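1st attempt posting a full record on here, be nice pls
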Amino acid sequence: MISNYQQKKTQTKAEQIFKGALSQFLEFGYVGASMDKIAQASGVSKQTLYSHFGDKESLFKALIKQVATQEFQLVWGKPLQGKPEFVLRQLAQRIIQEISDPQYLAFVHIIVTEAKNQPELTQIFLENVCKPAMATLTKYLSNCDDLQLDDPEAIAVIFVYTLIHYVITQEILGGNIVIPISPERVIDNLIKIIVKI
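the predicted structure (as tokens):
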């Protein structure tokens, strides 16, 4: 049986490795990051690195889950309670703020780049971020007395995907230069559409 001390030590070591691995994947991409570089950046031996994660693919998959879980908690950790105009506005602001983080966007870019060769990577990401997010918002929309929605799940998908698309278009594709639009305008009009349905 593993003691609490050993369990905490293992978690701390894993977090240390995640931090070093993230820096290497962001700098060199999935293909360019090596286990040697990751071990060095993490301040652990290669043996420790391999004993925790086995290989680079397993480490990257674990890192996706770690980043996804942290991101989910930052955006969705607060309970969705109150009037829809207020709840949806607060939620939209958190989504845009968190996914606009350059480091987070760069990590998502790596996942998308690798999707053709390893489609399970995007599935892990969707399973750990989008799926629970949709379920959380669908539950709120379904139980909101102020809204009488025919398809709360579809509305949840439209809400979240619109905000993700907005950030990707503005921050990655250069929309902030070519077709600039403020997040406030997007949020205001998205909420108006939903509340009026």
